[in-house]
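question for whoever is on the cluster today: can someone run the full assembly for these? two chains, 830 residues total. i dont have access anymore since they changed the login thing
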Amino acid sequence: MANPVFLFRLILLMLLSMMPLSGYTQANIEIDTPAIASLKQSMQQRHKQLEPYYSRGAVGLTHDGLIAMHDANALPLSARQPVNTLIAAENQDRNALYREIARANSHPEWEGDIRSTFGQRWIQLARPGWWYQNASGSWVRK
Amino acid sequence: MVRLFVIILPVFFAVTSFAYADPVITLSIDDVRSPLLNTAGVQASLTGSKESLLDIQLDEVAIQGKVWRGLRFSCHKFQIDNGLVRCDEGVLTSARSAPLLISFQFSSRHKILDVTIQTSSSEGRESWTLSAHWGKPSWGGMLTVTNGDISRIAEFLPVGENEILPTPIQGKGTINGSIKLHGDGDGLAGIDADLALDGLGFSDATGLHAGENISGEINAKAVRKGDGQGHLWKWNADVNWPSGEVFWQPLYFSAQGQRLTASGELNENIVRIVEGKLVLSGIGEMDLSGVIERPANTLRDFDLSADNLELSMLFSQVLKPFLANTPFADLKAAGQAGIRWRYRNSAHESLDVNLRDVSVEDERGRFAFSGVNARIPWQMQGANGKHEPTTADIHIQSSQLGRIPIGELHIPLKMEGWNLSIPRLTVPVLDGTLTLENFSASRKEGQAQEWQWQFSGGLSPISMQKLTEALGVQPMHGTLSGEIPRVSYNGSTVEVEGALLVRVFDGTVLIWNLKALDPMGPAATLMADVDMRNLDLNLLTGTFSFGNMQGRLDVAMHDLELFNWKPVKFDASLTSSPGNYPRRISQAAVQNISSLGGMGAAAAIQRSFLHFFDDFGYSKIGWSCSLRNGICHMDGIASEPMPNGYLIVKGGGIPAITVIGYNREVDWWELVSRLQRITQVSPKPIIN
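^ ran it for u. tokens below:
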């Protein structure tokens, strides 16, 4: 009579052998190209302007790796349009960054996955008190 | 609130007057329903004989769907005498408001009602006074407000189920003025309001629609025409806005004396603006008319026309906020514009734009247009529902694309809704011309609604001298020309089919597979393959002060990728062209070529007897560089492999010189700076 432990291991091995070894080669999201470096630099410079708005709750992080106006009431009226412009410029850079990282990995079709990975990372890096959108799209204070 | 009492009081007084002999009267009504008024939980009591105490409580009052809750009115000096009902020092309280002092007198004989409402605060300057009179068939009244607190009105405004009205900021804003009303048996027949607002603030929950410190004057009149069910109101209004600021996503306005005058009609189904004029300081005057459908308050039809608008302010205040996420976000514009916009059945129908002496400039220096005069009669749909083609006449005196100046342009733009086309356009570029044929552009369906366009054409010879001067690079001689079977843009990438031909240095440069990714975006990248044939080394090295060389050179630069006009990636190879021609290389050129190989045996020539010779013979040149991640991976003449190093110059003739490179990898920017310095460092030359 066959050893049941051996049989179990054999079945497990057979099942594992039927699974694809790896679906994807992992994207290198740290990849660096002049375009990516330029986008990061532009975003870094803008971050100094955006930071007080994150802290005040005026601007928050969306779950799809972008930023959005969370509470315009936290801003004087005259500042709301310039902050809108700042948000649009930041989102333009962020969209370009995700596209460039996917392209630098030679897999433009990975853009969506890279975007969601970054979306989670931005939220992890957010300071306490900043606002972000959870997976269902609701605003949450960190 | 006043309306409420006009309705309630006569009914109540009729009851109480009848039973006044009794010192205590109580009245309790659970529910009253009528088309005009619904009440629930009404309790009233009258105590005493001469100066009595009146107390009325209403749990809920609803008038035409609007609801007030928890109202209580008490009057300690209440008198009824010979048809005159009078209350001094009455107090009205509600669930949502501080108490209000109310005095009134009502005479059924003289048919008058006077009501004064004042705040109970110590300031005591706020008052609302209503004087009404009625007879057969007409009635009239006047409401006078002195220092009325706007936030108080908001508190008393009924709580609607689905109202998205801005919520006034507490404690802000006062109102002064008067409203005259008159009516007849059919109800209200005329209103004449003359009001001044001061310090008004409002905001919705998200702050995307908000105003602060708003002052303004409103003069409005409305007169009912017709009778019975088909009431039609004729109205006119004049609104003046001298101070304050408003943010209405994405627009921001600060008051600069803007003024709106309008007249029109109103009935149960529509508000019609027959004639309106909007004056925006710094922008100009606009005439408007339109129809708003009730009760949804949606814009159905609208006409806006203006002849002389200052484009500078119009663009920065009104248009630019809508362009925040587009390549046109950094534009500034100046000049005069005329606009005719027609909106029908909740859709754009036509937009006729006239531009006069307009200039447009991209603040990032990517493009600029000046002396633009145009008439653009865009039309969305004709009467039969199909697109009606129209032609725009656009004349541009001069423009600039990057650093390249473009001459006078006349653009016959055909428009069919969102489909645009130009059959043929000649663009003067320096001393040549770019010819565009069969240009067509259309807006993609879908959420992003990006534009896509394409054209074919050709570039007649442009002087390289003028082009290099314009670009501010090393002057070159020759021409640039090309046949372009197709240039297309798909919303993210510009692709050029065919090839551009540059004739320089007595040879040819062919640029093909030209592609620009995200050309107006933050990460614009240019890609191309470049093949250069038979370049005259004498002219080439003379131009770049490289050290004289004689001969012919072929250069292939494939998979070239430029970011910010700097190379990021390529596979390049330089080889001496096939054929018979003199092959000489100067001592200076040898030094410079040697530097391509990196740090080798430095100044070997200077140390040897070779420095007695000015130039040398060679038979073949070959050098290649694959640029990846900032590193140039180098090799030499492919057909002459060497065990150590690689051959860059193969000697030939007398005296001949051979140059061997040993470093296979070099930092690209280090290499470029070395070439720029015309370094003295070179690999070891071998003398045959």
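summary bc i know u wont read the tokens: The two ends of chain A are 59 Å apart (CA to CA). The mean pLDDT of chain A is 84.
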